[in-house]
Amino acid sequence: ADGVIRLVVAHEDPGVHNWLDTTGQPVFFMSPRWAYSQQPEPPDWPSISMKVVKAKDVLSLLPPGTKRVTPEERRREIAIRQRHVTKRYRVF
Questions:
Q1: Strand (E) or helix (H) holding 77
Q2: What are phi and psi of 12, to 5 degrees?
Q3: Contact status, residue 65 vs residue 6, Cβ threshold 8 Å
Q4: CA spacing 20 to 30 A to 50: which of 27, 29, 33, 74?
Q5: Tens digit of pLDDT for each residue in 62-91?
Q6: Do the beta carbons of residue 77 and residue 19 sit within 8 Å?
Q7: How many CA atoms lie within 13 A of 36 on its CB side?
Q8: First vs last Cα of the chain: how many Å apart?
Q9: For residue 22, what pLDDT band results from cuts at 50, 70 and 90?
């Protein structure tokens, strides 16, 4: 509702839609990118911030209305992605 895109990077699934799994890696690199048909003026460029929090505090720090995901919904999501990867990288 506030126009902010929030991503949760965590080792364990916190039950939120925009979760990025670290796949067990203790250190990782993130590189955001934006694509525009025309470059916006500098005042309109997006900004990024990051906050490290304890896993137990994640849900309490997200705004009300943050989309939640059940374990079953997550399993279905992952299964769909795995099918897409299999299709994309199949051998002809």
A1: helix 71-88
A2: -115, 150
A3: no
A4: 74
A5: 999 999 999 999 999 999 999 999 999 988
A6: no
A7: 8
A8: 45
A9: very high
Rounded to the nearest 5 percent, the helix, strand and coil shares of the chain are: 30, 10, 60
Do residues 56 and 40 lie in contact, with contact meaning Cβ atoms separated by under 8 Å?
A: no
pTM: 0.77
Number of residues written out for the chain: 92
Please count the other Cβ atoms lying within 10 Å of the Cβ belonging to residue 16: 17
Structural tokens at position 57: 């505090």
| Residues 6, 14 contacting (CB under 8 angstroms) | no
Q: Residue 50 is which amino acid?
A: M
Amino acid at 38: Q
> What dihedral angle (degrees, nearest 10) is formed by the CA atoms of 29, 55, 6, 2?
-150
Question: What pairs with residue 10 in β-bridges?
Answer: 21
CB 32 within 8 A of CB 48: yes
Name residue 76's amino acid: R
Give me the residue label for tokens 């059940």.
70
